[in-house]
Amino acid sequence: MYVIPTLAIIHAIFSDYSYPFITLIGSIVSVACHFAFRLDQEISSLFFNSFRDARSILIIIGHWALHAFGIISLTELKSSLNTGLLLLLVPLPAAFYILTSTFSDPTKIRND
């Protein structure tokens, strides 16, 4: 409830400096939310079901575009080689979630 007003205040005070970071964090949180709403959290299910229907493909491409925009706005295209190498990391948040989702299954947590 306080997230959007807080982001607005941060952006108003530090506008030019905070925007790339807000964009990157927003893209990471949104891709995590997209995958978290899937019922089956198995690696194969998350990977294959993400590319089955057009809606999921568009959502993932939108997340990747937002993440790429955040990287480009952060680097300001000062060095095309560095920016190009950093753009190779765009699918990393989605891949990280897919690969580590089985480790965070609440049914597998022991009550010691």
Automatic annotation (TrEMBL):
Segments passing through the bilayer: 17-37, 57-75, 81-100
GO cellular component: membrane
Keyword NAD: no
Assigned keywords, A-Z: Membrane, Transmembrane, Transmembrane helix
Molecular functions (GO terms): ubiquitin protein ligase binding
Matching InterPro entries: JAMP
Annotated signal sequence range: none
GO BP, sorted A to Z: ERAD pathway; response to unfolded protein
Top-level taxon of the source organism: Eukaryota
Record protein name field: JNK1/MAPK8-associated membrane protein-like protein
Protein source organism: Leptotrombidium deliense
